[in-house]
Amino acid sequence: LQVFDDEGKNVTPKPLFQPDPNSPVPRQEKLYFQVFYLFEPGSSSWISAIRSTSGLDGPAAPASQQEPALSSAAVEERQEETQEGLTEAELEQRVDIFLVETETLWLLDVPPALVSVEAEDAPRVLERNKIYTELCKTKAGSNRFVERMVQTLAGAAKNKGVQCEPIPLGEKGMMVTPWDLDNPLDASGTDPEPRAEGSRATRGESSKSASAPEHELSVPVPPDRGSTVSSLMIPEGVIPARSHKEEECPSAALLTSENLQQDLVVMERILMGNIFQPKLAAYRQIPVLTGLFLTQEPLSSAGLWKSGTTEEAEEEEHDMEKRDEDKEGKGAVFPDAQEAPGAAGGGRLEELWSYRCDLTRGLRVSSMACNKANPDLLAIGYGEFDPKGQKKGLACCWSPKNPLWPERIFRCEQGVTALDFSLASPNLLAVGMSCGSVAIYDVGSRNDAAFLDSSASLNKHTGPVWQLRWVKQDRGDKKERLMCISADGRVTEWLLQPRLDCIDLMKLKRTEREKKKSPGGQEREGGALISQQAAGMCFDFHPQDPDIYLAGTDEGHILQCSCSAKEQVLSTYRGHKGPVYKVSWNPSSTDLFLSCSADWSTILWHQHSQAPLLTFTSAAASVQDIVWSPKSAFTFTAVKGSRVEMWDLSVSIFNPVMSQAASPGANLTSILYAQNNQCLLLGDNQGAVGVWEL
């Protein structure tokens, strides 16, 4: 048989059985059978019955009238008999085969939870769901209706009552002093002797009761309150059990407790905020509180500060103005502000406060760095650089919350020469020392020990680390590299591992000296070089390409180098006659950079030109530090000796727009712009960092 579709294509199913072409083909005989599929009651098997039919026999009888099912042996025997007894005409006769579908045998019947909308019982199901929804709406407001995800019934609530005897209550009162509350026991830690029978009881004291046994304690009074002794009635159950250590020294355990220290920190923050409120308001650029004015006179030796009325505030403000005028005469505020000839609107600096304490007095401020995540956190490095002998240094973290004492103090074996905060991990502070060591501290921890230290490294610097910097590897990458430049002529990259170690990126070599001409016109060579290595004094990385950096040397030269091209100098800028103290790229115009030197000059350079663009010289003093203004590409500030100068190239290139002197007896060593306000941070050689409002 072949089956064709409407388009005439042959879609006859192919047989699953593929006969072997090499096997002999049996003789085909035309034999037709009628097949019936029957189910035998009482068994789980199906039996097929085949009966030959012909056209002469007439139409097939119904299944109920046909012969009973036969076994396979009987069918084969019947087939042989049929083949032998049939004639050729009967064999050519057409045979009809009827296939009857049997009943379905159900092994598992799970009724569905969904009913088709076209089903016969769909209206009945919809009506039942509507009735259930209305029933739920009627019970939703009832207190007994609880929506649960289980099919268990809620048990009935049971009330249980307990009856006991009433607890006797009583009122007691006594008169105590603050000294009695703080010292319930005497200094020896033992109960004092009971009071005499004839002594007078304290006012308000009641009699003892049997239910609350009490004993009397005589508490000593401070010496300034006389020799009188007050008595105190304390129940025995109220006094806690004390350990042997607490009995020996109860005040020491109280003073060393963490809760007391935390409370003291909070109280200290409140007092500092009240005392420095006008200064902090100017620092934050917010209005000053006028309803409550805090004077500068302590009430007592305890150091508490009093608040007065409006009239007292006005008098105090008048007195403060007089004191400021007196300070101006002494140099506390810059007295001799100068403007450039022809410059309009010279600025003025006013000191808000100064970060200083007894620990930093007499030390030189070598470097400053603001935290990238918290700009209020300022790290300051201190060191005393004496050629006769190096002294210990400090690295302190200050905050405007307490200008009188640092938040963290890290003591170093040698003077601190450079420090910087990490951007990826703002809690890490890298510190460089005068001995060539590099240490990393964790400012988030109370431990003042170094987190990582290079003292055990065999490749550490042999000269002072004059500057270090955390530099991003790529523009979009958060990974950082710790770079250092030292007086031993090496620019290194430090690897953060259990033992801090470094690799050399560049060894700064001295340049050949120019031949000098003698008075007779003959050229003569200069003296021989003492060392082939040039001391590195400072460096700065390009703001857009961290692979390019500038390095200043003690020869007065500036070298442009690359981190990828080791031992190769890209450009050399010659213009200074003394050691270069600072180089700084312009953050807005990245092709320009500044340099300052001990030759009293500041030079503006272009990276594609080895000749200086502009040279700025005013006072006869070495320029210790320079910094670009974060708000203007034409403005920079420099410190020279005891003066601070602000230059605006859009106004004048010959004179600074502002030049002011600091306090007498102190020379400025470093300068930094505050990141979140219009303030300058000026460090000097006396251990103070002043916060000046511009």
TrEMBL record:
Its main location: cytoplasm. SUPFAM superfamilies: WD40 repeat-like. Residues 1-26, 56-84, 177-228, 304-344 are annotated as: Disordered. GO terms for cellular component: axonemal dynein complex; dynein axonemal particle. Residues 192-206, 319-330 have a biased composition (Basic and acidic residues). InterPro entries: Dynein_IC, WD40/YVTN_repeat-like_dom_sf, WD40_repeat_dom_sf, WD40_rpt. Keywords: Cell projection, Cilium, Cytoplasm, Cytoskeleton, Flagellum, Repeat, WD repeat. GO terms for biological process: cilium movement. It is found in: Cytoplasm, Cytoskeleton, Flagellum axoneme; Dynein axonemal particle. Gene3D superfamilies: YVTN repeat-like/Quinoprotein amine dehydrogenase. WD repeats lie at residues 573-615. One of its GO terms (molecular function) is dynein heavy chain binding. This is Dynein axonemal intermediate chain 4. It comes from Pitta sordida (Hooded pitta).
